[in-house]
Design goal:
Elements: H1 2-15, E1 21-33, H2 36-42, E2 48-60, E3 63-68, H3 75-82, E4 90-95, E5 98-99, H4 104-110, E6 111-115, H5 126-136, H6 141-155, H7 170-181, E7 188-192, H8 200-215, E8 219-224, H9 227-233, E9 236-241, E10 244-250, H10 251-256
Parallel strand pairs: 3-8, 3-9, 6-7, 7-8
Antiparallel strand pairs: 1-2, 1-4, 4-5, 9-10
Helix pairs in contact: 5-6, 5-7, 6-7
């Protein structure tokens, strides 16, 4: 009887327009083995480093969730686990109910992942790269070209579309990377330090676009060590220290303290 009530209650909540949970991170842990050189640099004899230690959080459609913490806190490791680039040692991550462990292909089909550590090849043009990644996602040519025009117009890429990336500015490369990451119109967008190294104008274009994606009902996860970015765009924030969730809540609640 209790199960029936819970099912009916969930259906009622969904019908009333409650945001759908898009991402759930449940008690994930990730440990890395340190090389001799890494141990020497870190001045430690420990052969293992716990990068993420029992971390949990969730995010819903139409929300920008921020992961805030100093460099080395474990933010990028979390992002890489969500995007299926690396596997968690324990715990699980689901995107619309699909586990990164048992259904990684379905997870990848639903997400965009962008980090400054993953760079597009300088030899190719924005147009070629956009078409290439669209084709990987199996997007029909007509839909691909229509979305490419929309995104290229949005970011002012059109006049640079046939110029090799090596000849473009840092800001333009970042805008091309964002456009390419959104080629398949993903429901969950995961950006690691999206404004890192950008000039003020380009950074504003990126943050304004994140807010537009939120209005479209996308679930957006932003990882950064810059508090001002969290202030500008995030609805909720989780503060990560040494791989653990130190504090989580709305921006106002987190600023007020425990």
């Amino acid at each position: 009887m209790e199960d029936i009530f819970q099912t009916e209650n969930a259906a009622s909540t969904k019908a009333c327009g409650a945001p759908e949970e898009a991402l759930q991170v449940r008690n994930v842990k990730k440990t890395f083995t340190l090389s001799y050189k890494q141990r020497k640099i870190n001045r430690t004899d420990e052969r293992k480093k716990v990068a993420v230690d029992g971390l949990s959080f969730s995010a819903v459609n139409g929300e920008i969730y921020g992961l805030l913490g100093p460099n080395g806190a474990g933010k990028t490791t979390v992002m890489r686990m969500i995007s299926t680039l690396i596997k968690c040692d324990s715990g699980d991550i689901t995107v619309f109910g699909h586990s990164v462990k048992t259904a990684p292909d379905k997870v990848r089909a639903s997400i965009a992942f962008l980090t400054s550590e993953l760079k597009l090849e300088d030899y190719f043009t924005p147009s070629y790269l956009y078409n290439f990644y669209s084709d990987l996602h199996g997007i029909p040519a007509a839909a691909r070209d229509a979305r490419k025009k929309q995104l290229f117009d949005k970011f002012g890429i059109g006049s640079f579309s046939e110029i090799k990336l090596a000849e473009l500015s840092t800001g333009m490369k970042q805008k091309v990377s964002i456009a390419v990451s959104l080629a398949h119109d993903p429901k969950v967008i995961i950006y690691d330090e999206p404004t890192n190294g950008l000039d003020v104008i380009t950074a504003k274009i990126v943050t304004d676009f994140l807010l537009e994606l939120k209005k479209e009902g996308k679930c957006i996860i932003v990882s950064t060590h810059i508090f001002s970015l969290i202030e500008k765009v995030c609805d909720r924030v989780g503060i990560i220290i040494n791989g653990k969730m130190a504090l989580e809540g709305t921006l106002a609640g987190v600023c007020a303290g425990p």
